[in-house]
Amino acid sequence: MNHFELGDGEHGGPELYCEDTPLAKIAEAVGTPVYVYSSATLERHFTVLRDALVAAGLKDPLVAFAVKANPNVAVLRTLAKAGAGADVVSEGEVRRALAAGVPPERIVFSGVGKSEAEIAFALQAGVAEINLESEPELRLVDAVAERLGKRATVAIRVNPDVEAGGHAKISTGKAENKFGVSLAEAERLYAQASNMAGVRPVGVACHIGSQITDLAPLEAAFRKMRALVERLRAEGLSVERLDLGGGLGAPYFNAPTPPAPADYAAMIARVMAGLPTIQFAFEPGRMIAANAGVLVARVQHVHARPEGRKFLVLDAAMNDLLRPAMYDAYHDIRPVRPREGEPQPYDVVGPICETGDTFTRDRLLPPLEAGDLVAFMTAGAYGAAMSSEYNSRLLVPEVLVKGADYAVVRPRPTYDDMLARERSAPWL
Ligand SMILES: *Cc1c(COP(=O)(O)O)cnc(C)c1O
User: Fold this and answer.
1) What's residue 172's pLDDT?
2) With a cut of 50, which residues of the chain have pLDDT below it?
């Protein structure tokens, strides 16, 4: 569930709210396009997941929000205050998590190609765990830690060779994907790591994909992970943590309904039943942030072609919300102040001169006119996070709502800000 609902509008009709704040009020004050996040939805999703895991009998699970889904520091702080950790994939994300008040002992550092500098930074910061994706990375972390006089707490990221994920670009758990090592390789690396001075292996990790709406592939992967833990322990190696990644889907309206957190937790409890003491870690991104955010845009023009096609030209573009262009993603689109009348098919497009700048085609929407506001629903994950200044459009601002209050948590830059980042060259 989320906290974006129709309520009574000041204009006399219904209008879309984020919690107790009308989206139109924010659009008026901040301008469009603008991302709007609900604190209550963020907190709720985190709490529902954590409580479900605890209720299923998992002791003290670490729920580390995948920062890449929504790296805004105010969003991270909202989750950190609710008890979330952070799953990070770069030094920038470590810094964001720390700036948001996530304690280092709740930060997990994942990622396929961490640089020496990033590893050193993470070790100095004291992150809880570095997830290693290959043997060269194991050797690099060992060397960096030794040089710093530290011992890195590490987990081995395993690729359990299971097909999952809502789209080829977000499937990560097949053997052909670049992520992690095979189960057999993990066993060998774990043993090797436990003899190294610069690292201390504490567990194994997996993350098989994103937008997963079926528990079966997760269960298949988790069974393999359990068996791996048991094999490692049988070899006399200590395994304290099992990181099961993220990947649970979000409800995008046209997609299959993702599993309920309670069912996910119950499946894990079933698969792990009887496994002696282990701490479970999770790295959810999308399921926490996706429907905690919307992108509000204004209709610039309604452009009706003589042969009948109707284009809804918005002031938001693919640089603000890349998912439709990148993943053919579906976002529900709702008028902020719905007008009466028969729904009509619209092609919803942005102003960028590129056919990819099409959010959707032939979408049935209530009648819309120039100046109307629309909200792209379920845009809180991989929305602003993937935004850019393509076409020299200003970076889209972000607003966090709490009840009837809201705060601009990333202001729209000015054109001077944008230009000030660049320099001429001495010969020009
Ligand atoms: C992207 C990613 C996640 C989060 O995935 P979601 O589908 O947003 O839950 C978790 N762990 C790792 C290692 C990732 O790369």
Assistant:
1) 67
2) none
Given 197, 234, 273, 353, which residue is catalytic?
Answer: 353
3 state SS of 18: strand
Residues 205 and 162 in one domain: yes
334 close to ligand 1 (CB < 6 Angstrom): no
Binding site membership of 286 for ligand 1 (Cβ less than 6 Å): yes
Give the sign of the dihedral formed by CA 421, CA 426, CA 427, CA 428.
Answer: positive
**List of residues 6+ apart from 172 with CB closer than 8 A:** 159, 165, 179, 207, 208, 209, 210
Statement to judge: residues 240 and 318 lie in one domain: no
Q: Are 173 and 279 contained in the same domain?
A: yes
In-domain check, residue 414:
yes
pLDDT tens string 223-260: 999 999 999 999 999 999 999 999 999 988 877 889 99
User: Rounded distance, CA 342 to CA 358, Å?
Assistant: 23
- Do 265 and 391 lie in one domain? The reply is no
Predicted pLDDT at 171: 64
- Does a structural domain hold residue 87? no
* Residue 236 domain boundaries: 110-284
How many domains does the chain divide into?
A: 2
pLDDT digit string, tens, across residues 7-57: 999 888 999 999 999 999 999 999 999 999 999 999 999 999 999 999 999
The three-class DSSP label of residue 119 is helix
Same-domain status, 299 and 357: yes
Report the pLDDT value the prediction gives residue 69, as an integer from 0 to 100. 98
In a domain, 250, yes or no: yes
Residue after which a domain boundary falls, among 236, 265, 284: 284
d(CA 53, CA 51): 5
353 is catalytic: yes
Choice from 62, 65, 87, 114 to test ligand 1 binding pocket (greatest atom count within 8 A of CB): 87
Element (DSSP H or E) covering residue 109: strand 107-109
Give the pLDDT of residue 267. Answer: 98
Cα–Cα distance for residue pair 336/36, rounded to 1 Å: 13
Q: What is the C-alpha to C-alpha distance for residues 376 and 4, in angstroms, rounded to an integer?
A: 11
Task: Round to whole Å and give the CA distance between 326 and 295.
Answer: 17
DSSP, residue by residue, 341-379: S--EEEEEE-SSSSTT-EEEEEEEE----TT-EEEESS-
On whether residue 367 sits in a domain, the answer given is yes
Which residue type does 237 have?
L
Pair (278, 294) in one structural domain: no
What's 137's domain CATH number?
3.20.20.10
Residue among 67, 208, 283 to mutate when testing ligand 1 (max atoms within 8 A of CB): 283
